[in-house]
Design goal:
The protein is mainly α and 250 residues long. The chain has ten helices and no strands.
Length: 250
């Protein structure tokens, strides 16, 4: 008697719930909006446009780290490498159809690199980012003593910084923008006050100079009329009648 071999599953669909039927409007949508196939040239142009859009975004352009897409611990080589890569991608000569925006983004890249390679300016940027981080922690009611590692752990699923709207990174960018704008307004106000003080001082100097000239003109006019005044006095003395001596009867 031969042993029975292993049972084989009859041909058919795999076990499990049947697939959901596709509705007519879904089929039509797939037919109307097929995934476009781009050439290498078109993909490069798309990447150029996306990078220009990213750099010119208001939330990014205020922070040199965001413009260059770098973290705070980036060293000089990383900064220069990021600048070269992005500047080659969006160079205005390569974006004739969007040259004006490309020039603006290219200029922001250069300014951001210069800021991060300058020790004093980078210190200001780092202090601004740190202040933005502390401000975000206060806004969320979290301890301001949290370290970068603790903040990163809180961003995992289920953490206190998970699924924030706006996200933790966006909050930092928004706060950096506000802090830099406030500093810029303070600088402009200080410059305006200085200019107004200089204008007032210039007006006072001008008024003093005009008064000095007026007095000098009066003195010159007085000196110029000296001869005329002297001649008139001499004339008056010459025409003045002498008193007759009284006749004394002897």
């Amino acid at each position: 008697m031969s042993e029975a071999g292993p049972s084989r599953r009859p041909p058919g669909p795999p076990p499990g719930p049947p697939p959901r039927p596709q509705f007519a409007h879904e089929k039509k949508k797939l037919e109307v909006y097929p995934e476009p196939k781009l050439s290498a040239k078109d993909k490069y142009a798309r990447n150029q446009t996306r990078e220009v859009d990213r750099i010119l975004n208001v939330a990014f352009r205020m922070n040199p780290y965001d413009v260059l897409d770098l973290t705070q611990n980036a060293d000089e080589k990383a900064i220069q490498k990021a600048y070269r890569k992005k500047s080659l991608l969006i160079h205005p000569d390569k974006m004739k159809d969007d040259q004006e925006r490309a020039e603006e983004a290219f200029d922001l890249l250069k300014k951001s690199m210069d800021a991060l390679l300058d020790e004093g300016r980078r210190k200001f940027v780092d202090e601004t980012v740190d202040s933005a981080r502390l401000l975000a922690l206060r806004e969320l009611g979290l301890p301001i003593t949290m370290t970068a590692e603790e903040i990163e752990l809180e961003q995992v699923p289920g953490g206190r910084l998970d699924q924030l709207l706006p996200s933790w990174e966006d909050r930092i960018k928004i706060n950096v923008k506000h802090i830099i704008l406030d500093e810029e307004l303070k600088k402009r106000k200080a410059v305006q006050m200085k200019q107004e003080a200089e204008i007032d001082a210039a007006k006072r100097r001008e008024a003093a100079e005009m008064e000095r000239k007026r007095r000098a003109d009066m003195d010159n006019a007085w000196e110029a009329s000296r001869e005329e005044r002297t001649g008139w006095r001499s004339f008056q003395k010459g025409t003045k009648r002498k008193k007759k001596a009284p006749n004394v009867l002897g």
